[in-house]
Design goal:
This protein is an alpha/beta fold. The protein contains 8 helices and 15 strands. The strands form 3 sheets. Strands 2-3-1-4-11-5 form a 6-stranded mixed beta sheet. A 5-stranded mixed beta sheet has the order 8-7-9-6-10. Strand 2 and strand 3 form a beta hairpin. The structure holds adenosine-5'-triphosphate and zinc ion. The site of adenosine-5'-triphosphate (ATP) has 16 residues, from helix 3 and strand 9.
């Protein structure tokens, strides 16, 4: 018995999906042109597909689970369950206007023609914001639509914004934000569901490890209380004596984001020799 997972074959989610499974200790080869493979050391069968086809494969039960951008599901809802956000493939669906255009707000789009591959999401957004604009559906190369006279503005996926910029566009409004998610068919058989639980356990430990760092620092013993108070989000640090009298090493887990917020405070409180180390896995 294998759990069948559908991954994007090529494109912006392909590397992130493969990397996540590898980090979960699941090895497989996805040689060029291969549509299907089996993992070597985990009961997983992998299908490589176009991202747009993944929700249907999962909804129809051809695959049990899949990795897909939230934007695809929002545009085209299917009978699938979103099981876990995966923290990669982050992007926004944004409305962008020609750089030279003075844009002051959504009402400026009234009567304008907007090119997009996401007509459903955009139409809901316009309805919610009482904007009456014309939606022009295009598949691919949305960003060139204004320069060839096909539309006045676009609504497209953006991550850094460099593609928009090089096409003379600037981001004006965010319609939705998106990241990769793990989806599952609603009627997952019991044995597939047990494998999914094992996979989820590994994914969560990889995610937790990516968001946290192991921190080690030295401090005078009489500063332990002050420093412990500054280190957020932990039960209690490990305190180990140093060979030097009255000095200790404090060790703890901290989110990377929090570390940068408190590093100056830690130094002021007497911390020295601060080391921040990556964590491979964190069992949560
Ligand atoms: P396919 O050939 O599989 O149909 P595609 O061209 O439709 O691929 P990609 O451009 O590879 O799709 O994007 C896949 C997903 O990656 C998007 O649906 C989105 O969720 C995510 N993504 C992340 N960043 C970006 C970005 N800058 N532009 C487009 N998509 C992005
Ligand atoms: Zn696609």
């Amino acid at each position: 018995m294998n759990l069948k997972i559908a991954l994007q074959k090529q494109g912006k989610l392909a590397d992130g999906s493969t990397r996540l499974l590898h980090k979960c200790g699941i090895e497989f080869s996805n040689g060029y042109g291969k549509l299907r493979t089996e993992a070597e050391d985990f009961p997983l069968e992998i299908f490589f597909l176009r991202d747009d086809d993944i929700p249907d494969y999962v909804a129809d039960g051809v695959a049990d689970v899949g990795i897909i951008g939230q934007n695809v599901l929002a545009e085209n809802p299917k009978k699938v369950k979103t099981v876990e956000k995966l923290g990669f493939g982050r992007c926004r669906l944004s409305i962008a206007v020609p750089k030279g255009l003075g844009y002051t707000g959504l009402q400026d789009l009234t009567g304008k023609k907007i090119a997009t591959s996401y007509p459903n999401i955009l139409s809901d957004f316009f309805t919610a914001n009482a904007v009456s604009a014309e939606i022009h559906e295009v598949n691919g190369s949305v960003e060139i639509a204004p320069s060839v006279g096909l539309s006045d503005a676009v609504c497209d996926l953006v991550s850094s914004g460099s593609t928009l910029f090089s096409n003379g566009l600037r981001e004006a409004e965010t319609v939705m934000t998106s990241e990769a998610v793990l989806i599952a068919r609603p009627d997952l058989p019991v044995d597939a569901s047990a494998i999914l639980d094992q996979l989820l356990f590994r994914i969560r430990s990889v995610k937790a490890a990516e968001q946290n760092k192991y921190i080690l620092l030295n401090a005078p013993a009489d500063k332990v209380e002050d420093i412990s108070r500054i280190l957020p989000g932990m039960r209690s640090p490990t305190v180990v004596p140093l060979a030097e009298p009255d000095w200790v090493s404090l060790q703890s887990v901290i989110s990377e984001h929090e570390f940068w917020n408190v590093v100056d405070e830690l130094k002021r409180a007497g911390a020295e020799g601060i080391l921040v180390v990556s964590i491979d896995h964190m069992i949560v």
